[in-house]
C-alpha cells in the first residue's frame, strides 16, 4: 500500500518550490547582512521580532523541514529494503524534524512576544 500524495511528480514539485523559497530567503539574508548588518544579539532579536521577518523565517523553516523530509524520505525508501527498518528510520527522522520545527517556532514566538 502506498500513499498517493507523496510519490511521483508532486514531491518533485514540492522539492523545487521549497528550494526556490529557501534560496530567496538566503538572498534576503545576504542583502540584510551586506546593507544593514545587525551588530549584536539585541539588534538580531529586534530584527527577528519584526512581524514580516518573523513570518518570513517561519515560512522558510516550514520550507526547509518539508524539503528535508521529502529528500530524506526518498533516500530511505530507496536504500533501506527492510520494511520494519524503513518504518523505524522514517519515524526517527520524522520525529526529529517535528521536534526541530517545534523548537524553531518556539524560538520565533519567544522573540516575537518579547
UniProtKB/TrEMBL annotation:
Cofactor(s) needed: heme
Q: Name one Pfam family in it.
A: Sdh_cyt
Where does the protein end up?
Answer: Cell inner membrane
Key word Heme present in the record? yes
Predominant location category? membrane
One GO cellular component term of this record is: plasma membrane
Mind telling me which InterPro entries this protein's record contains? Answer: SQR/QFR_C/D (IPR034804), Succ_DH_anchor (IPR014312), SuccDH_FuR_B_TM-su (IPR000701)
Q: In which pathway does it act?
A: Carbohydrate metabolism; tricarboxylic acid cycle
The membrane spanning regions, by residue number, are 12-35, 55-72, 84-105
The record's Gene Ontology biological-process terms are: cytochrome complex assembly; tricarboxylic acid cycle
Membrane-topology descriptor: Multi-pass membrane protein
Question: A single Gene Ontology molecular function, please?
Answer: electron transfer activity
| Keyword set, alphabetical order | Cell inner membrane, Cell membrane, Electron transport, Heme, Iron, Membrane, Metal-binding, Transmembrane, Transmembrane helix, Transport, Tricarboxylic acid cycle
Its job: Membrane-anchoring subunit of succinate dehydrogenase (SDH).
The protein in question is named Succinate dehydrogenase hydrophobic membrane anchor protein
Q: Which organism is it from?
A: hydrothermal vent metagenome
Q: Kindly list the organism's lineage.
A: unclassified sequences, metagenomes, ecological metagenomes
Amino acid at each position: 500500500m502506498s500513499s498517493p500524495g507523496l510519490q511521483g511528480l508532486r514531491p518533485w514539485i514540492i522539492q523545487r518550490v521549497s528550494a526556490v523559497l529557501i534560496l530567496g530567503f538566503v538572498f534576503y539574508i545576504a542583502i540584510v547582512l551586506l546593507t544593514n548588518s545587525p551588530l549584536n544579539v539585541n539588534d538580531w532579536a529586534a530584527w527577528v521580532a519584526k512581524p514580516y521577518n518573523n513570518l518570513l523565517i517561519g515560512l522558510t523553516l516550514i520550507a526547509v523541514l518539508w524539503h528535508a523530509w521529502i529528500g530524506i524520505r526518498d533516500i530511505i525508501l530507496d536504500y533501506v529494503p527492510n520494511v520494519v527498518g524503513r518504518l523505524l528510520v522514517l519515524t526517527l527522522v520524522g520525529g526529529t524534524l517535528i521536534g526541530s520545527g517545534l523548537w524553531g517556532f518556539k524560538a520565533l514566538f519567544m522573540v516575537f512576544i518579547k
